[in-house]
User: Fold this.
Amino acid sequence: MKKKILIIGSGFSSLSAASYLAKSGCDVSVYEKNTALGGRARIKKINGFTFDMGPSWYWMPDVFENYFQDFGKQVSDFYDLKRLSPSYRVFWEDAPEDIPSDMRELKAYFEKHEKGSGDKLEKFLAEAKVKYDVGMGEFVTKPSLSIKEFMTLDIAKKGMSLDLFKPISKHIRSYFSHPKLIELLEFPVLFLGAKPQNTPSLYSLMNYADMALGTWYPMGGMNKIIEGMVSVAESLGVKFHIDSTVEEIVVKNNKAIGLKINGEIIEADRIVSGADYHHTEQVLLPESNRDYSEKYWDKRVMAPSSLLYYVGLNKKIEGIKHHNLFFDESFENHATEIYDTHKWPEKPLFYLCNPSKTDDSVAPEGKENLFFLVPVSTELTDDGEEIRKRYFDLICDRLTTHIGEDIRSSIEVYESFAHSDFVSEYNSFKGNAYGLANTLKQTAFLKPKMKSKKVDNLYYTGQLTVPGPGVPPSLISGKVVSELVMKN
Assistant:
């Protein structure tokens, strides 16, 4: 008889876990509280515009290819993947510059800013490749339940190459001194949730993902990945339920025996939660069955929250690319406001995605699809319409300065999404957008565990457990937790 497994949530990690568990012969059902599948990678359709609500960067294409290959499929079976060239545009204080996707051109770009840095970049990325191969290979595929998993001679030797105790800020500066090059190499750290000086240099693997493996875009938008994963899961018999709010994990004799959903108890042999870990523990479980206290959670270092804007213009605009990073203000000041002082930023860096530059399907003909993101502290809860409007005007003023055109008079669609929405839509702990910060003290076996220590048959996956934040790690998290479930 098939084991019956219930999965909470339908984000990347949940869909991944569902597919692998179904492939292993389990009877799998997925329960999603919202009206559409995909978690943070849902889409918003308004007046002919299609907005990706969350992730918009497609890095580490090998991870996606490996996922689909595990089910006898290819990425191309579900969406067309296009490499962006240039990878993105950076708006510095003095002028915008395009970051080439071609390695020879990228080396020339570095050389232009700092003599000798072209060859240094080659060495830097060669070292980053070693970290990528080891980090994204052997290390992220472990459930990290215990330090003993890492106490082998082979892993110890490989671990020496990962620079776990050296901050990435120091590592980058050992190669480069030009401030633009340093900021360019440090920017992926913002997605990891900590200041560069608090992030292990292991994560230069992100630079390898960015500059060597490239920045890609799935035509139709990031939700095409979700559609592909749902298709794989359904072909294996996974059943999906939307508008299904999990009210309680039913525990009997310290065993999870089912879920209470919309007032009904549904029995199961195993429960996997891809929902917010803190919400699952602190809301869905009795206090006596929780592994972690509120005090523990309050001490966690969180990745940022985000202030997001979905904007549709009634015309095309020039001067921007598909991905645009506005580094025209102080990186250090903004990072301090996010992680140390927890204030609304005075002069924030921000990101602008313009997918209609690449994909005609996401906006009506002759119109433009824009997605703005401002990283902010998770401690900011006063995100009413007044402050959202103020920050939108601030970033529009900056955009106008750089491209010589004010988009505000051409806005046809405008919606915002902030801290309170992350909480209400995703039960997100402290309104975080990316999960736990990847600090040394929150890496591998130091993260919240994938398997409950107090409740048998209960497992966790997603960005608050291993391997960490980001879309590729979420796919891997789902696979790792499925193997753990089957092993047990």
Remarks:
- The longest helix spans residues 117-139.
- The mean pLDDT is 94.
